[in-house]
Fold these 4 entries.
Entry 1:
Amino acid sequence: MSLSMRSTDPRLVLALGLIAHGASGCLEHPLKPVEYDMASQFETTLDVVENKDVDILFVIDNSGSMGEEQATLAKNFDHFIAVLEHPDVDANYRIGITTTDNGAPGCNGTTPEGGKLRLTSCRDRQQEFTWNGENPPVEKFDEACGNICPPELAGLETTPTVTDHDTEPKPRAWIERIEGATNLPEGVTTTDAFRCFGPQGIDGCGFEMPLETMWKALALMEQPGQPNFDFRRRGAILGVVLVTDEADCSLNPDHAAIFDKNGTKVFWSDPGAPGPTSAVCWNAGVTCTGGPGTYENCDPADKDESGQITSDPDEAVLLPVSRYVDMLQNIEDEKKTMAPDQEVIVAGIVGVPSGYSGPEDIVYQDAVDPTFQAKYGIGPGCSSPAAEAVPPVRLREFARAFEVDGEPNLYSICDDDYGPALEGFADKLISQIRPACMPACVADTDPETPDRLDPDCIVEQVYPEGGGTEVIPPCVLTCGGSPCAPDERDQADGWEFPSEEASACFRYLTDRWGAEGTPTKLDDMGDACIEEGWNLEFRIERRIGSPPPSGTRIQATCQLSQQEEIDCPDL
């Protein structure tokens, strides 16, 4: 039955999300009846926003101890990209980077990003890989940048692109790969780019504020004129990665006196010291039970300038963790109005032991080394030849609020390989991408072909903000390079766009039996749709570099089955 013959057919109208299909499953073949009742059915409409888009924000500690860790992150980035670019995923992703430097008293001379995204080759910032906080100064350029970023990528910049709300092509402060096209010069992969853009140097403020710079980075994405503007797409899955070896020190600027050399020094480990250390951050934001020596537990605490617990967020010297949980929860709630199952994905590469499985794995104890204790206020949460890191109490509490299915989302910064951490984070991101199942039992319009489902659907994309609709034509299946004859579709070995003008087309995926079904793999359904009992999945194909506006929906109008026990036996 052709699309042009469908004007009197009953329909169920549903708007579907898009994704590349996954592996196929195996089911017992149902048998079709000889006669098929095509009597009228009802209509309804359901909207599910496209969620193949993924926006990822990296917040990277750029303080003096982070040279090795930045090198490890950059070297292992290919694990992350491999998951996002796998053919069964093919995510449309953006990657933005900011630092933990938000400025703080005692950090004079740094150039705080304050949440602004920046994208410059580390080879153009060699001076940032020297830290003068030690004698002699620490120099990490070769380790963190020179041995990782090729010399020819000095001066690397993104190529001009447009966004949903800025249609003037210009270089953006982020890496992106949309519908197979990147915003990088020819021959430069996204992995190559991150190996140069990712290392942030080691001359940043030592009072790290990963939560506050994350908050500011997300807020700046809503402000025209900022490098962050329009990075975050309305319908995209949002991921945040925090990378630091110290405690969060997100200061309430009204209480900067806690760092004052002439102040009360309530949170200083050594009031006689010439200046504050990171111990101020630990003491001002954490309360431990038990001890001294080894503590039963340590938890975030809102304290006023006198060191007392306060319930007034304005009096808390460090901005409450709830500020950051609430911001991401609001973003998640907004996304759930478009995709009810969508969640914000958070990960931390922080001071937890290798193989971290929950808070009980962290041992909170005073440091054996008195210098470490004086500097940080507590002993390390993990140690290795690669790193020594402070337990991430505030970050732990923040990350726990965004665990998915109770699975831990913190990884050890002391590991010498971040591949498993990056793969784990990427896997959680792509778990949010759902295949475009037709969530109804679709009718088989041709009972003369008992070995396959022959659906009859019209597929349209619905543009956001009153932009109207546009019919998406079916892709042309090819056999040996030429269009397949009707009786050859089960043998298809490729597909093509129906015309030079078409920027998108759709394919039906109807084979629930994989290798035991039709000979071609081009119609194999993904596991998710099969497990839910549906009998039809769509695959939307787009030309490279031809993405629709963010928030575009896909609407499918299909004839419904009246014999679900035949067409959808597993519902």
Note: The CA atoms of residues 121 and 155 lie 6 Å apart.
Entry 2:
Amino acid sequence: MVCPGHDFPPVDLKQLPVDFAFQAMAERSDRAPARWRRPLLRWLDGVEAGWAVPLLIASFVAVWTLYLAVAYAGGGLHPDTLEAWTLGRNFAFGYHKHPPLMGWAAASWTFLFPLSDFSLQLMAMVNAGLALFFVDCVARQFVTGHKRILVLLLLMLTPVYQFHAQRFNANTVLLAVWPLATWCFLRAFETRHAGWAIAAGCTAALAMVGKYYSVFLVASFGFAALAHPARRAYFSSASPWISAATGLAVLSPHIYWLATTGASTFSYALAHANGDTVSSLGDVKNFLLGLIAAISVAAVIWVFIAGSRLRQLPADFAAMSPGLWLLFYVAIGTIILPILTSLAMGTDLPSLWALQGLFLFVVLIVCGARFQVERFYTVNVTVIAAGVALVAVLVAAPIHAVYRNIHGYEEGRNFYAQAASELTRQWHELTGEPLSAVSGDDSLAFATAFYSPDHPHYARPFAHQYDWGLPRKATLGRGWAALCFEGQDDCSRWMDSVSSRAGNSVRREFTVQASLWGRSGVKRNVIVLMVPPDASPESAAQDLSASKRSLN
């Protein structure tokens, strides 16, 4: 390539002093592999037989669940995960802060599995494993054999499917839904079969009730269909209209909920639209840099795999199959549309909102490469991914656990279980009854609902989660408790106001201490306010139903 206006000679990557592809070595290895490579090569032989990909994903889920169990030993679950579980305790077609999918998923999981840290850590990693499985469903539309494995391995070397995934919330629930919806859309566009069209509509609706950010994925499907050369055949068929009708039908209960409750979920989402052009430009820059950083390790490894064959990239791009072109338009839409929206409306644009879409670019790069990728490279990347996982479990996880036991977490995760247990003990001592409602600092309240043997309901309506409003006297009369960490001034002042309103409250303070593998750690003081229930039979009868209504 020659730059216009300059006499620079074209760069021939073949002449570079280092061939990053190590192609001769790769070819020799594929012809006569070393003994240690042979078990891995036999595993790669099982890709099309149907067992190699599930084995890889199951191993990934098992190893990284173990990492979470070790790294967060002595520390509670992330507040986002506890919030998802709290929402899901009462089924609804919408909640006042987030669309309902994360609550449904957490409730479904804990209906089948025990309520414990390990159980919800496993849930988070199973969600990541499902995401990788659906990515493979997309990849196998375009490639076979070990290239499918390579796509998954490169994604496993991003921080998305382990560290981002462990915070199960409205963002991470999309990890599995986006590739599933993309796969169904690709099949619906290609086959125009009614079954795939229905599946595309259902999964697009599922993405929308995961997080409204998914509107960019759904809009990208429309953009891709319009930009594709086969658009006439697609739009003249019944497929897109079946998808649209199905999607609206699946969304209709949530739409009805929005219409009858004031659409507070939209209000919460639109609260992020408070910037100006300058701040939006900064957000866009950080958005792109964050996505580049997240995928950088996978990109560097791909450069080493491709080496001098990178010069084929423009030709490979031009020669992509129609299906890959469709995927390309979807990928571009998921980046360009949020950027344009941010610039037009002044919305926030954190890169973590888009991490679930990075698979689109990895699939495009690997599946769009027309050159043969030697199995030598796939084996090497497997070893790298396995090495990273083992170092994480055996070295990084215990170091992280020990560090956090000494220094603690900003949100106080070390103290959740101890604080919930002590509050429950003191409540039983004071009232002789189960604790039914809890409030205060959100993270402590969610944790108490989860860790207390009484599993009280979170008593602050989500519509007023950040208002620090005073509970109704009827709520206090049914029995109620709240917790704050010492030093949380807003929470402490709110307790003073509640105490004045209640009249018969009991305020106490106790110290909790982190513990890890028998070693004591950091300490922190917790302030609790307990309002014993009235003796009124009416207030006792209303207790459970009112606390459930408060979630919605």
Note: The beta strands are 437-440, 457-458, 480-485, 506-516, 519-531.
Entry 3:
Amino acid sequence: MKRLTFLVSAVLIAACTQCPVNDDPASTVVNSDGTVTFNYRNDNAESVQVDVQFAGRHTMQKDSLSGIWTITLGPAVPDIYPYCFVVDGISIMDPQCEQYFPNEGFKNSLLDIPGTNGPLVHSLQDVPHGKVDYVSYYSSTLDCYDTALIYTPASYDQGDRSYPVFYLISGTTDTEEVYYKVGKMNLIADNLIAGGKAEEMIIVLPYGNPSKIMTKRAMMMGDFFSRDLAEDLMPYVEANYRTINDAKHRAIGGFSRGGNQALSNGLLNLDKFSYLCSYSSFTSTSLPEVYDNADETNSKIILFWLGIGVDDMLYRTSHDYIEFLDKKGINHTLEFTEGKFGHTWMNARYFLDKTMPLLFNRQASAEAMADGGMALPELKGDEEPFTPGVMARMFPRQVVSPEFADSAVIFRLRADQAQEVKLEGEMLSEPLEMQKNEYGVWEISLTGLAPDVYCYNFVVDGTRVMDPTNMYLAPEIGFKRSILEIPGAPYSLNDVSSVKYSPVQIRYMSDGTQYSVVEPASGDGTKLKTVVLLSGEKAGLQAWQQVAHAQQILDQMIAAGKCKPCILKMYSGNKSPEKADATLNACRYSTWAEARKALEKTLADL
């Protein structure tokens, strides 16, 4: 393969930290009749489409006076819908939308249509809110650090009692954030618990595809997800949170691939889990020790809940699986949906809302199991069988970008209609032109990059595009760049396996605004000083966490004796709601590398 290679220095370009001011209309407008108007400005585009889950892909029209590309679609049922703009054949997120779908591959924005007859179950309501912790734990199975999200209910920090645990796994190509940022599991839990409809519980969101991060040594170990779950994540949760550690107080469930992982790990470990939930999931019948011993299996399961949409690509497979369970005499309860657009997160949220009231409630679960749920609908005969071809169509093979090879970093983008593609980023003094390789993929290889964390993007015929195959996005307001971490970057998670990292706690203020807290143990019980980190006007709340790696800097400096324990509090915008011993604003730094150095110095001097 031919590569165009440039030697670059550590000269950094100044990154804009303020949102441009313009008079463009909002990119999405929910109209009184339930329709949605999409607006998008791009003066370089020849054609623009919008692709939204409730309506599919449609061509937008450019207003001759305003220059805005626009279209009105719908009406749509109130819910959360992924969408993107397709600009001259390239899918990009809405630069005006702060909320996005975390994924290893596709990059979509989120359209949240509020309820018309009261709040939806996933809406932010005026109820006590739990917190969501981002945790980093060392996995001996994977030979590296892995990450997970952990929800604790509002009462958790107000007492010392222990809680049951629900392990909830996202689907194919999803990251560990999806059941939080798209599935809204924390808000669903908050609302159900506040309404007395669900038991208080801890919810753990694992990363379902650790092959993306694991070492080559670990990849020889077979089913690494299941091993990591049992041998690393669950022990971490039980050592660091107040959990009830028996099968009657553990549940496991998931969506799509995550549902299959949940069923496999649940059914094969009925000494650990007695509540099993499958949401539009892949299924397996190759567990003879489970299915051929129905009496013993049924005696250990409190809830076996399966949900699927009749218009889901997995419906025929699920239908066959349910018939298989009936033949084997395995007790279960069913729920079917129609009109939620098939294999979608509209279904995933709906199923979570339906099952959470049953979890850790033996009477409610017993009634659901005895009732059996909905009757199994007959197949119509036109259901598409789920084959490797269907899988390939839904999840086409991606180019690899960025790829680290022989001290070089290779960036690639498939853009068949493009006339010119450039790479721009904090690691470059100016944008560099990319070239098509023999496979028709735009490519460039860089050497000499200083180990650090940089934000970058492509420019396709004048349109800025994030790297679609890089799962790491900078949570910025406006256009969101991709994140590049060069091996050996300062304060990398995987540099020091002995560091115990503090959770990054996502909390709510009284007005519903989110903020983040990192609070390491003081060691001697003394009151800790506080450092406030402001994201500025362009960056989102989690930028100091996910781009600047503030938590990693703090915990590694404490471990190395370079600073004393202190509390980090992170807020959106330019104003702090509280006084602090030190305050840093991301707007004051031209790059995130400069912001990291400023934080390091502040912590050392505190």
Note: The mean pLDDT is 91.
Entry 4:
Amino acid sequence: MTQILLYDTTLRDGTQREDISLSCDDKLAIAFKLDQIGIHYIEAGWPGSNPKDAEFFQKVRNIGLKQAKVVAFGSTRRKHSRCETDKNLQALVAADTPAVALVGKSWDFQVETVLDTTLDENLSMISESIAFMRSHGTETIFDAEHFFDGYKANPDYALAALLAAAESGADFLALCDTNGGSLPWEIESIVKEVAARVPTRLGIHVHNDSGCAVANTLAAVRGGCVQIQGTINGYGERVGNADLTSIIPGLQLKMGYKVVSEEQLRGLTAISRYVAEIANLKHDRQQPYTGESAFAHKGGIHAAAVLKAAGSYQHIEPELVGNAMRTVISELSGRGNLITLCQNRGLEISQEESERVLHLLKKLEHQGYAFDAAEASVDLLLHRARAGYAPPFELIDFTVLAQERRGRGALSEATVKARIGQEEKLTAAEGSGPVDALSKALHQALNQHYPQLDKIQLTDYKVRILNTDKGTAAITRVLINFNDGEKSWTTVGASPNIIEASWRALSDSMEYALLGSTTL
């Protein structure tokens, strides 16, 4: 079967997403990871456009890539100029990468309206630029911008642009759905027509504006494309590019192509989350294949079925892409969800205990709790239901004061009285807000007995107002996330009183930390 080549443009096209800005070191770190998971080409930016990309092309030579070819990106020469004096092309030569990608127009409307030049001059720009880069011994990919729109409008000219690049020595012709508006059957049909008329190997580069980027890429492979351009997590301009974390398993597990090793495929979830972390973005829980919810089962019927046969509600084994099955606990849960969760946690729980937990859970959700994203709270429910469980501390009472003080501004004070074993502790603390003051006071009460809590840090605090028609008497749901340097966990609280809701989530987080749990 034909080898499909993976071309990643996270470091160039991916950074055109509005909320992404990568440093040179960020880009080097991601490039190293891309090489590890089997990417064949890494497009890294415009060497002539900014100092950061120029620095990257210097440093990337020393990071020890084992497989991937680094690609410098640029455009064809300017109209009515010479390649030898074109600064963009000169910068590509100076970057000294194994391969370059040159973008050029293939839609007559774009040539005449945007470039403001003649159709013949555009063909000369393509052919001369490709020939110039090939004369320097550099593998050259021609990105035919707006190709599918151009082909629909004027197929003869769109093909002429491809042939100009092919006849000048282009190694690949990447067909671009730049506006992202084409549909899978259009892509497959047009690629087949092009493959029948152009001998050069074809690539595909699509955007996701119509939500079809992954489907369009797979359709292009069916049509004859052998080079796949995309980004990790589909990051890119506007609504993004084709998502390689969906395309790679689609090619390998669904279509039968061998594109990476089994070990590299198992690294897909890790790199998906790694790139999100480096880009300082929250990883999408609903990401196909690699998302935290991709193999999560919430409905009771589903959970009961996967206990008997995992494939009953899963399209692949999650371990193939480095992910894992999860059972989500909610008011929709049945005993199967709890049984699966307990098995995953290594807990033994009786039928009576599980029924009690399920009843309590549904009662709490009716009161405003939500346990989908608060698995630490679910763990606590399970532990508390077991015979002989003794909580590490018990709240007696707490007080919170919020004041405006001259010269100091708004200030909060909290006192906490807690029982730890046979001893009662009364502590007080100031904080920048009520929750901060409560957290500090609780830490003070517990730290002498549980010094391991010193390394616990609150990392996120979310508040959601549920029944907004009740105004200030509405039920408030609070989610609090903590991290101990090795793992993170989330607990939930709900109440018409935001301080009480916060306390419930806060104290549960401390109790969970003292379980010594390795979950989450």
Note: Residues 306 and 312 are 6 Å apart (CA to CA).
